[in-house]
Amino acid sequence: MIIKYTLQRLLMLIPVSLSISVVIFLVVHLLPGDPIDNLMRVGSSPEDRLAMTVKYGLDRTLVEQYLLWIRSILSGDFGEAIVLRRPVSALIWQNLPYSLTLGALAFAFSSIVGMIAGTVSAVAKNPVVEQVVKAFILLGSTVPSFWLALLMILLFSVTLGWFPVSGAKTWTALVLPVLTIGFGGIALVARVTRVALVEIARQDFVTLLHAKGLSRSTILFRHLLPHAFLPVVTILALRIGWILGGAVTVEFVFGRPGLGSLLIRALGQRDYPVVQGCLLMLALAVMLGTLIGDVAQAALDPRVREATT
Amino acid sequence: MSTILKVEALRVAIGALTPLSSVSFSLEKGETLGLVGESGSGKSLTAMAIMGLLPLIGGRITGGSVVFDGSDLTALPEPAYRKLRGGRIGLITQNPMTSLDPLKKVGSQIDVVARLHLGLDKSAARNRTVELLGELRIPEPASIYHLYPHQLSGGMKQRIVIAMALAADPDLLIADEPTTALDVTVQAQIIRLLSDLIRDRGLSMVLITHDMSVVAQACDKVVVMYAGTAVEYGTVAAIFDDPRHPYTKALIGCIPRGLAGAQRLKGIEGTVPSVAHYPQGCRFHPRCPRAEAICAAVSPPFIASRDGAAACHFAGAVG
């Protein structure tokens, strides 16, 4: 049942991706400037420029260029990077693992710590604990990640010297970027978990669970948390795309390789095929995130399962 | 006959308020006692107090005693209380629509009681549950076992809730308005089912309701409650034949009789006062047709009558 539903949703990705590709293509080509500017040496003639333009097909109509791009996607190489002069697919494969590692760690870190913090603040009868977690949640949801990144570099790298300022040579270089991206996520997940738990604890069936003689911890772990998990899963799924988006600035600030760094550099050089390839990857990640969230929702909640499958 | 439950001068506080005071009654083995009154009279609070679940709603017992099978529950530590809940005292709640965990199969929600209190393993608990569902007149119990709550009707869900309460063979059932949320046709079935269970299994039951006709049908004894306190108690026969408290009389007057439309339905003027505004003296006096000056000043004592007693200054008077 769930498998059939997942396959249906995957098929739906094809038309959605196509329409997104049109938007990406148009936005990229509407940007002022073009990649040829970056290829010209001082003293090049207008003839050289024209030759370059023709070589990369930039003299053709937009429709032709779009169709050529789609053909290159279908053939698997995503076209040739104009400035970097390599297949875009090779550039993406080279950078993707860095982004995936960072994203996965930040995701796991913010989910786990966030759920624990949310649960503690909902269950603790201690007003101090509650206020501390609440303050942390407020801070985490309002501090922008690029600023937090600079602050972390200043404290942990420059002053204390615990972690490298930038790069990706050792695992320690991952710590600060993961903390930076994860921080906002913790706050979000903690808040959603907390609200859900407080809401569920008020429901009638919880009274009856107590009346059956179940212990508080059994009720929390077997009944309340699975319910709190439903909204959390939705939020987490939406965050998969958000984390990759957040990684764009954080990768740049920390000088890490990755899709984000590749995208920012390619944007500066107006390297159309690279920008398009990266944006398409990010869009795909967002769509897959939503899909995973919906499928997880159906797997966890029999009511949703019945309605969707 | 021996006493299974004896509640004496029970007093419950929530924060600075005292929504429940001077509630007393006793229940013998095999009997059904009805707790009757309008919404806000403290019936459900009494149930929560007996179950030891007041902390869930921020309440606590501040006076009196609840003696179950010889031991006082007000002093019982939580782990021992947990063995009692679901094990020896079963609770049936008001709204079956929200009383079950929507994410768990109904069968497993019943199993857990027998596993917890009787120490049964998974398959033994499951066989027991299927058997119990059959006993509760649920068709095809083996397939119902695997359904989720949202796939069942209200009446079915209430049977599941009853099965949860019965799963560990308790001695006492507390049924808090078990039929209020159900269709009229289903209400009668559930009441009959409960009455049969009490008789066949030798159970005792505290049946909370606002419906005097349910009391007449299912109970042996009655406690009438008003604004957080007991106003009259007695046998069903005594209460219906010779009600002494004006509130009891009014409640009985609310039962529709004869052909529908033949006569205007009666009600009781006014509403139950809220906890913060309980009146001085007799709490019913602002709505009482019989009230005199003394009612507003002095809280009435219980005056015994044949098979019962009523807290009214005029309970001894004829009429």
Automatic annotation (TrEMBL), chain A:
<dbReference type="GO" id="GO:0005886">
    <property type="term" value="C:plasma membrane"/>
</dbReference>
<keyword id="KW-0812">Transmembrane</keyword>
<feature type="transmembrane region" description="Helical">
    <location>
        <begin position="136"/>
        <end position="165"/>
    </location>
</feature>
<feature type="transmembrane region" description="Helical">
    <location>
        <begin position="228"/>
        <end position="254"/>
    </location>
</feature>
<feature type="transmembrane region" description="Helical">
    <location>
        <begin position="274"/>
        <end position="296"/>
    </location>
</feature>
<feature type="domain" description="ABC transmembrane type-1">
    <location>
        <begin position="96"/>
        <end position="293"/>
    </location>
</feature>
<dbReference type="Pfam" id="PF00528">
    <property type="entry name" value="BPD_transp_1"/>
</dbReference>
<dbReference type="GO" id="GO:0071916">
    <property type="term" value="F:dipeptide transmembrane transporter activity"/>
</dbReference>
<feature type="transmembrane region" description="Helical">
    <location>
        <begin position="171"/>
        <end position="192"/>
    </location>
</feature>
<keyword id="KW-0813">Transport</keyword>
<dbReference type="InterPro" id="IPR045621">
    <property type="entry name" value="BPD_transp_1_N"/>
</dbReference>
<dbReference type="InterPro" id="IPR000515">
    <property type="entry name" value="MetI-like"/>
</dbReference>
<keyword id="KW-0472">Membrane</keyword>
<protein>
    <submittedName>
        <fullName>Peptide/nickel transport system permease protein</fullName>
    </submittedName>
</protein>
<dbReference type="Pfam" id="PF19300">
    <property type="entry name" value="BPD_transp_1_N"/>
</dbReference>
<comment type="similarity">
    <text>Belongs to the binding-protein-dependent transport system permease family.</text>
</comment>
<feature type="transmembrane region" description="Helical">
    <location>
        <begin position="100"/>
        <end position="124"/>
    </location>
</feature>
<dbReference type="InterPro" id="IPR035906">
    <property type="entry name" value="MetI-like_sf"/>
</dbReference>
<keyword id="KW-1003">Cell membrane</keyword>
<feature type="transmembrane region" description="Helical">
    <location>
        <begin position="12"/>
        <end position="31"/>
    </location>
</feature>
<keyword id="KW-1133">Transmembrane helix</keyword>
From TrEMBL, chain B:
<dbReference type="InterPro" id="IPR050388">
    <property type="entry name" value="ABC_Ni/Peptide_Import"/>
</dbReference>
<keyword id="KW-0067">ATP-binding</keyword>
<protein>
    <submittedName>
        <fullName>Peptide/nickel transport system ATP-binding protein/oligopeptide transport system ATP-binding protein</fullName>
    </submittedName>
</protein>
<dbReference type="Pfam" id="PF00005">
    <property type="entry name" value="ABC_tran"/>
</dbReference>
<keyword id="KW-0547">Nucleotide-binding</keyword>
<dbReference type="GO" id="GO:0005524">
    <property type="term" value="F:ATP binding"/>
</dbReference>
<keyword id="KW-1003">Cell membrane</keyword>
<dbReference type="InterPro" id="IPR027417">
    <property type="entry name" value="P-loop_NTPase"/>
</dbReference>
<dbReference type="GO" id="GO:0015833">
    <property type="term" value="P:peptide transport"/>
</dbReference>
<keyword id="KW-0472">Membrane</keyword>
<dbReference type="GO" id="GO:0016887">
    <property type="term" value="F:ATP hydrolysis activity"/>
</dbReference>
<dbReference type="InterPro" id="IPR003439">
    <property type="entry name" value="ABC_transporter-like_ATP-bd"/>
</dbReference>
<dbReference type="GO" id="GO:0005886">
    <property type="term" value="C:plasma membrane"/>
</dbReference>
<dbReference type="Pfam" id="PF08352">
    <property type="entry name" value="oligo_HPY"/>
</dbReference>
<dbReference type="InterPro" id="IPR013563">
    <property type="entry name" value="Oligopep_ABC_C"/>
</dbReference>
<dbReference type="GO" id="GO:0055085">
    <property type="term" value="P:transmembrane transport"/>
</dbReference>
<comment type="similarity">
    <text>Belongs to the ABC transporter superfamily.</text>
</comment>
<dbReference type="InterPro" id="IPR003593">
    <property type="entry name" value="AAA+_ATPase"/>
</dbReference>
<keyword id="KW-0813">Transport</keyword>
<dbReference type="InterPro" id="IPR017871">
    <property type="entry name" value="ABC_transporter-like_CS"/>
</dbReference>
<feature type="domain" description="ABC transporter">
    <location>
        <begin position="5"/>
        <end position="252"/>
    </location>
</feature>
